[in-house]
Amino acid sequence: MSALPLSLDPDAQLVHCAPPLVRDEDRLAVLRSLAVLDTPPEAVFDALTRLATTLTGRPIGLIGLVDTGRTWFKSAVGMSLGESSNDYSFCARAIASDDVFEVPDAHRDPRFAGNPLVQGPPYVRFYAGAPLRVDGQPVGTICVVDHEPCLLDPEQRAALKDLAMLACELLQARRLIGHGS
Fold it and tell me: Please, which pLDDT band fits residue 21 given cuts at 50, 70 and 90?
């Protein structure tokens, strides 16, 4: 009998996927105060995501908000996934970083090699995400994804951080005007 492929072996997935994000009540309270989860797309967030893909040359861009158990995508360019389980979410790991969180080759990274998002659709090979911090709490990321391994150059990393700052300003402004309430 042959061994199961890595993506079908649940024990291998547990070993090779990054551990789930620890639940943080203060962070979740800030996220909920934004009243943005499960809202329709908004052109201004989609514009930031398109800029992220253009500035980095990557085919997929996302603004992901890390909720309890899931990462929900406020904006998605280049893929149609609406949310992802935090058990497999790259964004749920990226929010713990103070800088751009970059995975040059997910196939070779033991934290992600067995991840279903790497082994199957959308076939993530490269990920870079800048954390979105509101009221000092990490609520999500603006990120880019590719099907090929790569690295961002310093200018691309700086651009992604600038876009994260703009996304945070938009989230806070949205909250101030009561949009989505």
Answer: low
Q: Is residue 181 part of a domain?
A: no
Buried b (16+ CB within 10 A) or exposed e, 100-133: bbbbebbeebeebbbbbbbbeebebbbbbbbbbb
Q: How many domains does the chain have?
A: 1
Picking from 12, 31, 34, the residue whose alpha carbon sits closest to that of residue 21 is 31
Burial (CB count <10 Å: 0-12, 13-18, 19+), residue 20: middle
Is 172 part of a structural domain of the chain?
A: yes
Q: pLDDT category, 150, cuts 50, 70, 90? A: very high
Quote the tokens at residue 167.
Answer: 């996304």
The verdict on residue 2 lying in a domain is no
For residue 14, tell me if it sits in a domain: yes
Q: Which domain holds residue 35?
A: 7-176
pLDDT for res 82 = 86
CATH number at residue 19: 3.30.450.40
In sign, the C-alpha dihedral spanning 76, 80, 85, 89 is negative
* Backbone CA torsion sign across 50, 88, 66, 169: negative
CA nearest neighbour of 125 among 80, 46, 59: 59
